[in-house]
């Protein structure tokens, strides 16, 4: 894992000085909660069901602790204590048997929410926690957090349980945010100077140095695992309420991420760009986690324009109420008065290498996503040079969204050039940086030139690859220029949800019209993805149009409806 973190010489808007005095409290200003709102009543019903012995899926002690904080009613505190006691008792049983507790599973991925449950109950429900419980809970939480940051010497009950330390030193990684979450909540609840100082002097500066490199916002993990930024933005807010330090606005990442996610949303406002692994569901439909991220970004941001844009998006998207009860608590955050969409139709998040453009903010607009930037994270794909088109529905989109797993990363499934050397597909390589220059026009038009050669990391099979896109007037032109090594051929590929009907140098896939301009001797063929089963993957639908015959260039045009091309011929 290679990170571009310029720690030395970095300056921030906020000086991260020692917290003084240390506060033995988790402070969250809940004055924003409207206890007459439908959102509050839904959350209360969810918690009351758990009090009554019927907890919903993934109900947490934190939910009960929040309700106690809001109402002061003992039944909520008692439930939180009961749940945390069950967590700690189960851990003690595992440790007594010479094993390790559940909190250490999957490389401590769940340490954040599990310690949040404990810490909120330990602090907010203190009057209901016995001295013996406080001692046992503290010993358990302290060991868990210590094990996170000391992975090579981690232990439970005096027995060594070292682990790989995945994500510990990577502020781009979703695991890392769970580690920060656990450390912050336990550090504040226990008034532990070690953990507060670790955050203060090491982890927050490291995080801010990294996010400062993500100009334009977003995540290098894409639109699936990148939703973990919702947790990051939430803990920024808790840290500010508890210590007075506004680290969220020490750089522009939070506010920029509001714009990034808005532009990454397709015009029908029910899906987002399919960037990177999509493990929850393969097609990136708008879900609670998107709403959670935007609510916490809006809450954390001090940028009035970004907050206005976030408010518009939150009121416009398909998900208004949260689908799952365990997310109801996040919907207590105010969405704001409504706002308006961003003024710009083109957005380049150059820190993540993502370009978005659309012909308008109406639901029938044509929308484009184009990728050229860093390829580093394990959940990122070999999709440098990929483009996606949407108009009412997907027109051209990675086949990954039609797979069973949602984590097919290879170039075969993306709308790129597929370089084949002596029968083997040439892969793109991690820890490389492709580049893009962007020239916006009017009405959402954009011209972009991407140098994608670095993605192949000097592989002699690919001498060079430049991809130019011109988007506007509901037409996309993709122009490729490349040089090939011995034994290599380049195939222009585009994945479509429906079968392309081929007629010479043109193909029609639903409403999408594809015309090969160059080379004149190109050959078109179509692959039915449902006939493929490589690597045990299941392809549920989708087709790939392959254009072959180019020795150093391709030019292909994409349009819908009755677009008139520059040469005057009807599409």
Give a short overview.
This protein has 571 residues and is of the alpha+beta class. The chain has twelve helices and 22 strands. The strands form five sheets. The protein has an eight-stranded antiparallel sheet, with no helix packed on it.
Give your account of this protein's structure.
This protein has 571 residues and is α+β, with helices and mostly antiparallel strands. It has 2 domains: 295 residues, Alpha/alpha barrel (Glycosyltransferase); 215 residues, Beta-galactosidase, Chain A, domain 5 (Distorted Sandwich). It contains 12 helices and 22 strands. The strands form 5 sheets. An 8-stranded antiparallel beta sheet has the order 12-13-14-15-22-19-18-17, with no helix packed on it. A 5-stranded antiparallel beta sheet has the order 3-4-5-7-8, covered by helices on one side. Strand 9 and strand 10 form a beta hairpin. The longest helix has 23 residues. It is globular and about 80 Å long. The N terminus and C terminus are likely disordered.
Unreliable runs: 1-22, 563-571
Helical fraction: 25-40%
- The order of strands across the largest sheet is 12-13-14-15-22-19-18-17
Query: How confident is the prediction overall: mean pLDDT?
Result: 94
CA-based shape: globular
Count of distinct structural domains: 2
Class by SSE composition: alpha+beta
C-alpha Rg (nearest Å): 25 Å
Text of the CATH class of the largest domain: Mainly Alpha
* CATH architecture annotation of the largest domain: Alpha/alpha barrel
**Most strands sheet:** 8 strands, antiparallel
Give the distance, in angstroms, between the N- and C-terminal Cα atoms. Answer: 47 Å
Total beta strands? 22
Binned strand content: 15-25%
CATH superfamily of the largest domain: Chondroitin AC/alginate lyase
Helix count, per DSSP? 12
């Amino acid at each position: 894992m290679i990170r571009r973190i310029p720690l030395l010489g970095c300056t921030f808007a906020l000086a991260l000085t020692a917290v003084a005095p240390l506060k033995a409290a988790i402070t969250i200003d809940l004055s924003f909660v409207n206890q007459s709102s439908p959102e509050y009543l839904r959350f209360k019903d969810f918690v009351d069901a758990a009090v009554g012995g019927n907890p919903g899926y993934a109900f947490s002690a934190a939910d009960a602790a929040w309700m106690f904080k809001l109402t002061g009613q003992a039944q909520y505190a008692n439930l939180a204590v009961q749940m945390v006691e069950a967590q700690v008792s189960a851990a003690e049983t595992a440790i007594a048997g010479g094993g390790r507790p559940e909190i250490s599973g999957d490389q401590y991925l769940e340490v954040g929410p599990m310690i949040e449950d404990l810490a909120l109950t330990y602090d907010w429900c203190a009057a209901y926690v016995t001295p013996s419980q406080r001692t046992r809970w503290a010993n358990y939480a302290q060991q868990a957090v210590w094990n996170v940051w000391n992975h090579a010497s981690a232990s439970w009950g005096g027995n060594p349980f070292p682990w790989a330390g995945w994500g510990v030193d990577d502020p781009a990684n979703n695991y890392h945010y769970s580690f920060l979450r656990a450390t912050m909540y336990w550090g504040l609840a226990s008034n532990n100077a070690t953990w507060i100082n670790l955050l203060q002097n090491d982890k927050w500066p490291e995080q801010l140095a990294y996010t400062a490199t993500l100009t334009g916002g977003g995540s290098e993990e894409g639109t699936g695992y990148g939703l973990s930024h919702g947790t990051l933005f939430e803990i920024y807010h808790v840290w500010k309420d508890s210590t007075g330090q506004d680290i969220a606005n020490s750089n522009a990442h939070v506010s920029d991420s509001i714009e990034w996610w808005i532009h990454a949303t397709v015009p029908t406002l029910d899906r987002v760009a399919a960037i990177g692994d999509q493990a929850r569901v393969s097609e990136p439909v708008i879900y609670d986690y998107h709403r959670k991220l935007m609510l916490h970004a809006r809450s954390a941001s001090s940028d009035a324009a970004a907050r206005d844009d976030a408010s518009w998006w939150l009121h416009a998207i398909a998900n208004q109420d949260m689908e799952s009860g365990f997310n109801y608590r996040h919907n207590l955050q105010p969405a704001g008065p409504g706002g308006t969409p961003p003024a710009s139709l083109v957005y380049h998040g150059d820190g993540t290498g993502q370009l978005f453009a659309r012909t308008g903010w109406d639901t029938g607009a044509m929308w484009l996503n184009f990728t050229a930037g860093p390829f580093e994270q394990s959940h990122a794909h070999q999709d440098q040079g990929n483009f996606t088109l949407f108009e009412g529905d997907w027109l051209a989109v990675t086949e990954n969204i039609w797979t069973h797993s949602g984590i097919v990363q290879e170039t075969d499934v993306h709308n790129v050039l597929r370089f084949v050397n002596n029968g083997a597909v040439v892969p793109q390589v991690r820890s490389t940086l492709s580049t893009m220059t962007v020239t916006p026009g009017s009405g959402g038009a954009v011209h972009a030139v991407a140098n994608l050669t670095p993605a192949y990391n000097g592989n002699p099979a690919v001498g060079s690859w430049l991809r130019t896109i011109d988007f506007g007037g509901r037409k996309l032109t993709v122009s490729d220029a490349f040089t090939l090594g011995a034994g290599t051929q380049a195939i222009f590929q585009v994945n479509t949800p429906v079968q392309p009907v081929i007629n010479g140098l043109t193909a029609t896939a639903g409403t999408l019209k594809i015309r090969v301009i160059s080379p004149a001797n190109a050959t078109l063929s179509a692959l039915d993805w449902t006939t493929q089963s490589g690597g045990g993957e299941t392809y549920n639908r989708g087709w790939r149009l392959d254009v072959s015959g180019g020795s150093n260039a391709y030019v292909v045009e994409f349009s819908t409806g009755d677009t008139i091309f520059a040469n005057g011929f009807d599409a």
